[in-house]
């Protein structure tokens, strides 16, 4: 199977959304290379990429690469899994020195209920991911 050319900007939230999420987040220790989550894991939260190198990948059941790319600063990783309470569909790994923070699932859920304006911003990111996935699938 060929790699799908997926637009990394689809994972990026706007400045207001990143600001709100960062205020509810905790830093992730990336003093060494670190797996943030693996495809198929139960969702524990959303990861925010602020800088450095973070890669995201998707594999088939046979282990063939479907997608492998670098996440851009402002990327929100794990968002679809947390919102839908389903397993992560990608794997994410941070390289040593990456600047990443984490918002746990419970904290994320509270935020969605108490700040409805944020929910709209979250929907925009999810819609961009869906749109980009459809475009990539058509180019397949």
From TrEMBL:
PROSITE patterns: CNMP_BINDING_3. Residues 16-112 form the Cyclic nucleotide-binding domain. SUPFAM superfamilies: cAMP-binding domain-like. It comes from Occallatibacter riparius. It comes from the Bacteria. InterPro entries: cNMP-bd_dom (IPR000595), cNMP-bd_dom_sf (IPR018490), RmlC-like_jellyroll (IPR014710). Pfam families: cNMP_binding. This is Cyclic nucleotide-binding domain-containing protein.
């Amino acid at each position: 199977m060929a790699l799908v050319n997926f637009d990394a900007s689809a994972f990026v939230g706007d400045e207001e959304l990143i600001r709100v999420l960062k205020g509810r987040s905790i830093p992730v220790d990336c003093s060494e290379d670190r797996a943030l989550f693996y495809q198929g894991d139960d969702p524990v939260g959303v990861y925010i990429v602020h800088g450095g190198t973070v890669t995201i990948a998707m594999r088939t059941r046979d282990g063939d690469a479907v997608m492998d790319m670098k996440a851009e600063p402002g990327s929100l990783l794990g968002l679809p899994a947390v919102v839908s309470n389903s397993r992560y569909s990608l794997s994410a790994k941070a390289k040593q020195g990456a600047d990443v923070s984490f918002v746990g699932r419970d904290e994320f859920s509270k935020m969605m209920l108490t700040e409805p304006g944020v929910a709209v911003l979250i929907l925009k990111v999810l819609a961009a991911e869906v749109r980009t996935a459809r475009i990539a699938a058509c180019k397949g």
